[in-house]
From TrEMBL:
Name recorded for this polypeptide: Aminopeptidase N
Domain Peptidase M1 alanyl aminopeptidase C-terminal: 541-854
InterPro entries cross-referenced by the UniProt entry: Aminopeptidase_N-like_N, Aminopeptidase_N-like_N_sf, PepN_Ig-like_sf, Peptidase_M1, Peptidase_M1_dom, Peptidase_M1_pepN, Peptidase_M1_pepN_C, Peptidase_M1_pepN_C_sf
Domain Peptidase M1 alanyl aminopeptidase Ig-like fold: residue ranges: 441-534
């Protein structure tokens, strides 16, 4: 496999200012004629390199005449244009969307045709430089059978349409904004629309359309509201106005990712568009809102200013995730959103940063760019942006982003361009901060408070270590912004003001002031930096912070740390006491200003995986055992509290206020705690909630709880759920998922059996993720001692790779964590990676992930 290096970047030798595409559409044969006006930018003659993947040119013409000066190199087309400095190059290709199971390029999904071009799918449609620094104005004509494809959509505006012969019709679309090929999109099919409009801040009316299959239109209301809210938010918070008269979204069932920000024509996975209370949970609703916002925000951070090359991916993704996180925080509860985001970062990104696939947010090399749509690029990328915003504050940050958009509008920019714009616009020196772009690994901070016995002066001593990662044995100290506050419980002269400490060296001392008794130290408040903190706390300090810290995130963090300490002690075989945890949870449950969503997050035990991350060698079985034991102890000790929560009337499922959502969330947590006790009536209670639920949040929570046990109600509920929703693919995904999440000891066998279920299919990525993605997120099941979980995942990768390498490759990283799981498991995990690599004809995607995972 070829490795591509960031340092090898060269500007394109040819630009393509204009491109006209002509599609004769058909499910199993689509003919594409492309007319590229090309202009040479290289000083000397250079051949025109047009990328192709799985296509062959039927004919090549230059300036109107058939041209024979071309050759194929791999899948690429090289056209020799002699001394020309400009030309009109035409290439005809024929593709088969029906057999395109990779879901990259032009493919068929439920009799509809759609495209996915990011990162390198356009070259599967037609020959093109297909690099993000080649921007063109597109003119797209499509023609097809009117009965099969009544709706014909592309980027920009529809400028003309008409009827053709033999029941055919056509449409001509023009996008006035130059864009890279990865933002091209086309959709053709039998779709219905939910229409609305939005008037922009300068008074322009934009037509909005959400296109779905007939029958789904009633489930698009939330997505539409989210779109309008996003448009208003981006005007208000970033001064960004929408720039076309039309904004369309199409929902597609078969989709590799969440959604795609094609200019003026976003294409979405149905799961991030469709929602109604009967079929979508509150979390699904939030997912719809967040992803709609994310893709909309890309119109500026991604489309108007795009990436120079794919090494700059975090330029658009990190920034856009930061923007969608801020939006969702504004739409709901900022602390709860922050907790959710940190939970995700710790679940998905920290393990990546600590394993063989660790890479900086701006990678130095890759083999297959699809493998770099990672939690590091997205979520750590967002944290890096957040730290800059924290250091300069909202007004100066806005000056920086304004400057960035001004300077680079219409350009393909770099991460460096962004940092420079923040530096210049916000007035801050980010020289050292830039290390966050180049160094991988999660910094580890050790904190210690020293006391000067003579005068009671307290000093916070901080040290930082950035761990070695593949290819980066030595690291320089980073600039780490830490929000801290030291509480004075004893009437000393401690400064109880929050301060922002900029830890910029390996060791640093921060004077805290005079405290008679040890201060209660709130550290990394709001998770101001994506780091791991080791801090030997004073007796009772975490309990105090969990109850009293005025930063809700820090309260959450203190309680989580208390739970972690208790669990880690228990897992390592030492005597542990649940008393402090129980007391802290009771405090949180009964605390006054309690937002139920916050309470639900705070009292939830850390995941098995996160407990494992605290240990040098992970013992999945002991973690499962001790976590269940603690859960049961909390369930028993606080039984009346949990019952009281469940005894209150559930809010109506149609009520989607943050308060209603929070109350449902807390009810789900209460049910899980009660069920963990194994109390006689727990299954009946869960089944009662399952049957009586008026919406999916409560129904799914009850089903998931039942799925952990082995009551007769479990089988009953699964059966009822299946029969009720077997025709709704998104809900059926949940049915597969709750079974793969189950804490039962036979879950691996159950997953193997479900893979044979008639409703299971490898051709739908959502279904694959629902079953197998849930299994690899289920630590004790995936790491079952006999290696059956590993085998199942490796079998899946091998079966899926020939059909859909992108989705297959995404299943590999859990196998790469073998160093952490003890010799016996490590040997089995490596053996599965080797078995994968031994398969002939493996994709580049899987080859890269599996071979790197062995290192
Ligand atoms: N930009 C797309 C990513 C699609 C990549 C597919 N390999 C989704 C998003 O981040 O908005
Ligand atoms: Zn994105």
């Amino acid at each position: 496999p070829v490795t591509i290096h960031r340092g090898d970047y060269r500007p394109p030798e040819w630009q393509v200012p204009d491109i006209a595409l002509d599609f004769a559409l058909g499910i199993d044969e689509t003919r594409v004629s492309a007319r590229l006006s090309v202009v040479r930018h290289a000083d000397a003659p250079a051949p025109l390199l047009l990328r192709g993947d799985g296509i062959t040119p039927a004919e090549v013409r230059v300036d109107g005449s058939v041209w024979n000066d071309w050759r194929m190199e791999g899948g690429d087309l090289i056209v020799d244009l002699g001394e020309r400095t400009a030309a009109m190059v035409e290439v005809d290709t024929v593709i088969n969307p029906a057999t395109n199971t990779q879901l990259m390029g032009l493919y068929a999904s439920n009799a509809m045709l759609c495209t996915q071009c990011e990162a390198e799918g356009f070259r599967r449609i037609t020959f093109h430089p297909d690099r993000p620094d080649v921007l063109s104005r597109y003119r797209v004509r499509m023609e097809g059978d009117k009965a099969a494809f009544p709706i014909l959509l592309s980027n920009g505006n529809c400028v003309e349409q008409g009827a053709g012969e033999g029941g055919r019709h056509w449409a001509l679309w023009e996008d006035p904004w130059p864009k890279p090929s990865y933002l091209f999109a086309l959709v053709a099919g039998d779709l219905v629309v939910n229409r609305d409009s939005f008037t922009t801040m300068s008074g322009r009316k934009v037509e909005l359309g959400i296109w779905v299959r007939a029958g789904d239109e009633d489930r698009t209301g939330h997505a539409m509201q989210a779109l309008k809210d996003s448009m208003a938010w981006d005007e208000r918070v970033y001064g960004r106005e929408y720039d076309l008269d039309l904004f369309n979204i199409v929902a597609v069932s078969d989709f590799n990712m969440g959604a795609m920000e094609n200019k003026g024509l976003n294409v979405f996975n149905t799961r991030y568009i469709l929602a109604d209370p009967d079929t979508a949970t509150d979390m699904d609703y939030d997912g719809v809102e967040g992803v709609v916002a994310h893709e909309y925000f890309h119109n500026w951070s991604g489309n108007r200013v795009t990436c120079r090359d794919w090494f700059q991916l975090s330029l658009k993704e990190g920034f856009t995730v930061y923007r969608d996180q801020s939006f969702s925080a504004d739409m709901g509860s900022p602390p709860v959103k922050r907790i959710e985001d940190v939970r995700l970062l710790r679940a998905a990104q920290f393990p990546e940063d600590a394993g063989p696939l660790a890479h900086p947010i701006r990678p130095d090399s890759f083999q297959e760019i699809s493998n770099f749509y990672t939690a590091t690029i997205y979520n750590k990328g967002a944290e890096i942006i957040r730290m800059m915003a924290t250091m300069v504050g909202p007004e100066r940050f806005r000056k920086g982003t304004d400057l960035y958009f001004d300077r680079h509008d219409g350009e393909a920019a770099t991460c460096e361009d962004f940092v420079k714009a923040i530096e210049d616009g916000a007035g801050i020196d980010l020289t050292q901060f830039r290390l966050w772009y180049s160094q991988a690994g999660t910094p580890r901070i050790t904190a210690r408070i020293a006391t000067d016995e003579r005068n009671g002066e307290r000093t916070l001593h901080l040290t930082q270590v950035v761990p070695a990662t593949p290819g980066q044995p030595e690291k320089a100290p980073m600039l780490i912004p830490l929000r801290i506050k030291a509480y004075d419980l004893d009437g000393g002269h401690g400064v109880e003001e929050e301060q922002l400490v900029l830890l910029d060296r390996t060791e640093m001392a921060v004077p805290l002031g005079h405290y008679r008794s040890p201060p209660m130290l709130s550290l990394n408040r709001g998770f101001s930096a994506p780091v791991i903190v080791d801090f030997a706390r004073e007796e009772g300090e975490l309990e105090w912070l969990a109850a009293n810290d005025d930063d809700p995130f820090a309260r959450y963090e203190a309680l989580q740390q208390l739970m972690l300490d208790t669990l880690v002690t228990a897992v390592s075989g030492k005597a542990s006491d649940a008393g402090a945890v129980v007391d802290a949870i009771r405090q949180t449950l009964t605390g006054s200003a309690a937002d139920p969503a916050f309470v639900a997050e705070a009292v939830l035990l850390p995941s098995e995986a996160f407990i494992g991350d605290q240990m040098v060698i992970v013992d999945p079985d002991a973690i499962r055992r001790e976590r269940l034991a603690l859960q049961a102890a909390i369930g028993t000790a606080l039984e009346s509290e949990w019952r009281a929560i469940l005894g209150q009337l559930a809010p109506a499922a149609t009520l989607l206020t943050p308060l209603a959502k929070g109350r449902r969330r807390l009810r789900g947590v209460a049910l899980a705690y009660l069920a963990a006790t194994g109390m006689g009536d727990a299954s009946e209670l869960a089944f009662g909630i399952f049957s009586g639920a008026d919406g999916m949040t409560e129904r799914q929570a009850a089903l998931a709880t039942l799925a952990h046990g082995d009551s007769k109600e479990r089988a009953q509920a699964l059966d009822i759920f299946y029969r009720r929703y077997r025709d709704n693919p998104l809900v059926l995904d949940k049915w597969f998922q709750v079974q793969a999440w189950s804490l039962r000891s036979d879950t691996v066998a159950a997953v193997a059996a479900l893979a044979e279920h008639p409703d299971f299919t490898l051709t739908n990525p959502n279904r694959v993720r629902a079953l197998y993605g849930a299994l690899s997120a289920n630590q004790a099941a995936f790491h079952q001692a006999d290696g059956a979980g590993y085998r199942l995942i490796a079998d899946l990768v091998l079966a899926l790779d020939p059909k859909n390498p992108q989705t297959a490759a995404r299943m590999i990283p859990p196998l790469g964590r073998w160093k952490r799981f003890g010799d016996a498991r490590a040997a089995m995990m490596k053996a599965e990676l080797e078995r994968i690599l031994a398969q002939p004809g493996l994709s580049r995607d899987v080859t890269e992930q599996a071979s790197k995972s062995l290192l």
